[in-house]
Amino acid sequence: MHNNPKEHTVTLIIGSSGQLGSELASTLLKERPDKILICCDLHQGPAPDGAIFETLDVLDQSKLEDMIRRHGVQEIYHLAAMLSAKGEQNPAMAWRLNMEGLLNVLELSVKYGVGRVFWPSSIAAFGPGTPRDLVPQWPVMDPRTVYGISKLSGELWCQYYVQRFGLDVRSLRYPGIISWRTPPGGGTTDYAVEIFHEALRCGAYTSFLQAHTRLPMMYIDDAVRATLELMQADGERLSVRTSYNITAMSFTPLELAEAIQRRLPHFQIDYRVDFRQAIADTWPAVIDDQVARDDWGWNHHFDLSALVDEMLTNLAAIRERQR
């Protein structure tokens, strides 16, 4: 057991094989080489050099308890969830995974004195009653998907555990996250990842969202940095204990395609709208994240142009190595 917090910080990432978890794990080890990092996911997956990997179903409370106790965990990033599009195909399972998993983490964190917990919310927590443009930090929230319902409920549970038990829980309402390192995970904003793979593979992409569907987005490096900056922030400065609005840019499938065409002139896009359009229609177009910027100094680094350059350059390099 690792039981000397003065020598090491023992961090557990639940859902470490996913898009955010895999990036977060490698970044944590680079920035904090003194950290003991435990990575876990439902199935055996990759973990960065220097990390420990164990399989875990977060719904298995006894195994999670054993892991927290055995390693002396002091900090948890709980990222395991069923995302929006997959959640609509299996709503009962999505609710169970997203809610019971969070409650297991919160309960055990209180029981074992875990110092700090991070849990991600999402723009899916908003709904048709939320303003479409420049959504404030405290808007009407009336989600219409099981994923969104679980995120709004989770925000309130996090706030409850802060107020009732003094557990230091922190959260961000992520927009669509775009990464070249991991495949899409079943979300409604996945088109903004898929489009780059298809642009390089065959020079064309069929979008499942309409051309003018504007959604908030963020490059993965900004998402990871925002997460770590929030976790390192002075708790006295945090005015939000549900979840912080955060964003970097907003664009439509057409605008993203045009940005790609400026680099790949022969690229073409067409549209075959499916059930994910109805989900996107309940989400905001532009987020106001001024509270995060004021409270802990959040500032994004990547705009649309920089995002497109990063995605095309890195994916093209991968394709070249695979030849």
Key words describing this protein structure:
single chain, 323 residues, alpha/beta, Rossmann fold, UDP-galactose 4-epimerase, domain 1, 2 domains, six-stranded parallel beta sheet, three-stranded parallel beta sheet, 11 helices, 42% helix, 15% strand, disordered N terminus
**CATH class placement of the largest domain:** Alpha Beta
Taking the alpha carbons of the first and last residues, their distance comes to 45 Å
The proportion of residues forming helix, as a percent range, comes to: 40-55%
Succession of helices and strands:
EHEEHEHHEEHEEEHEEHEEHEHHH
Give the helix tally.
11
In terms of per-residue confidence, which ranges show pLDDT below 50 for 5 or more consecutive residues?
1-6
Beta-strand content estimate? 15-25%
**Helix- and strand-based class?**
alpha/beta
Strand order of the largest sheet: 3-2-1-4-5-7
**How many DSSP E strands?**
14
- Determine Rg (CA atoms, Å): 19 Å
Instruction: Using the coordinates shown, work out and report the CATH topology of the largest domain.
Output: Rossmann fold
The major sheet is characterized as: 6 strands, parallel
CATH architecture of the largest domain: 3-Layer(aba) Sandwich
Q: Average pLDDT value?
A: 94
Number of domains: 2
Task: Tell me about this structure.
The protein has 323 residues and is an alpha/beta fold. The protein has eleven helices and 14 strands. It folds into two domains: 10-176 and 219-245, Rossmann fold; 178-217 and 249-322, UDP-galactose 4-epimerase, domain 1 (Alpha-Beta Complex), CATH 3.90.25.10. 42% of the residues lie in helices and 15% in strands. The chain has a six-stranded parallel beta sheet, with helices on both faces. Helix 2 runs parallel beside helix 4 and helix 4 (91-111) packs parallel to helix 5 (146-165). It is globular, with a radius of gyration of 19 Å. The relative contact order is 0.13.
